[in-house]
Design a protein that fits this description.
single chain, 321 residues, alpha/beta, Glutaredoxin, 3 domains, 13 helices, elongated
């Protein structure tokens, strides 16, 4: 073969937007992705590529994903798509291309490996089907984490406080699930949605202007992640050993999470308060409700004792008669 024949054997750069007969991966936009995700029975693999500029690595990575496309979709519950929609990428915290996100029952996780071996990607997908990040709330935070007085030998907890209504903050969720898998069996990983969990958010003095906030709970002490870099490697390293470079805050400086005054009032009334009331009560209201609840309890005990004394007196009169 001469030089011309050799160079002509290589195809021209591939336009990833074009559909061809050999490529079974659909190119979709944000609306189509939302439509697929509304079906809770299906998982979704999204391959992100750069179309506006030359991206040789995107072409190579797509070829690797195409090799395992049939194997992935053969499960019957996983669909594979590709997109260059920047709004979708931004919502998932993706800033480099190519990238891959795997949605499991609407829970995304970011692929942190390379695209050099299609079988490596396939193994990663199969080993990351389970969602391992704990959803923590005002109601279950202390029972799950036992952060105030953990038992000897229990695993630490690494918790992300985020606001789902803040798009840049919410975009950390796929990356955080990747961290959770990296730390699986070593450190428990959880997340707290601050906009609907006021008690635990106030307890740890979470600043809404610093979103997300990452706290590590280790043997009754709290360590705050302060680095500007917020990626899988640095967060994982912090949870494993870098936190030891700080002085942890003991829980004598942070109030333990106790049942709210709203809960006391619910018990006193014998029924639940409407959700809007319980979610909008502020600190001053809670203090007032505590006073009302305790005062009401004292009143009930006093009335019970008076009634009991009256009955005893009546019984004594009946006996003497």
């Amino acid at each position: 073969l001469n030089t011309f024949e050799i160079t002509s054997c290589f195809p021209p750069p591939k336009d990833l937007r074009q559909e061809d007969t050999d490529n079974s991966i659909d190119d979709v936009d944000e609306d189509k992705i939302d439509e697929i995700l509304r079906d809770a029975t299906r998982n979704l693999v999204i391959f992100f590529y750069e179309a506006k500029s030359h991206c040789p690595s995107c072409v190579e990575a797509l070829s690797e994903v195409e090799e395992i496309d049939d194997d992935i979709e053969a499960t019957g519950y996983v669909q594979v798509v590709k997109t260059d929609d920047r709004s979708v990428a931004r919502d998932l915290g993706i800033v480099t291309f190519p990238s891959l996100v795997y949605y499991r029952r609407k829970n995304p996780i970011l692929y942190d490996g390379e695209f050099k071996d299609s079988q490596e990607v396939l193994r990663w997908l199969r080993s990351h089907e389970e969602v391992v990040t704990w959803d923590l709330t005002d109601d279950n935070f202390e029972s799950r984490t036992d952060s105030h007085s953990p038992d000897e030998g229990t695993l630490d907890w690494f918790v992300m406080f985020y606001d789902a209504d803040d798009a840049p903050c919410n975009s950390f969720i796929p990356m955080w699930e990747t961290v959770a898998h990296k730390l699986r069996g070593l450190v428990h990983v959880g997340k707290v949605e601050t906009s609907v969990n006021d008690d635990v958010t106030d307890r740890f003095h979470i600043d809404e202007n610093e979103c997300p906030t990452f706290l590590l709970f280790h043997r009754g002490k709290m360590y705050r992640y302060k680095e500007s870099a917020k990626d899988v490697r640095t967060l994982t390293n912090f949870a494993l050993y870098k936190f030891k470079e700080q002085r942890g805050m003991r829980y004598t400086n942070v109030s333990p999470l106790e049942p709210s005054a709203t809960a006391h009032l619910r018990l006193f009334l014998g029924k639940s308060l409407p959700l809007p009331i319980s979610s909008t009560l502020k600190t001053e209201d809670n203090q007032m409700l505590s006073v009302i609840g305790v005062g009401g309890l004292i009143l009930i005990v006093a009335i019970t004792l008076i009634i009991k004394a009256y009955r005893i007196k009546q019984q004594d009169k009946a006996k003497s008669a």
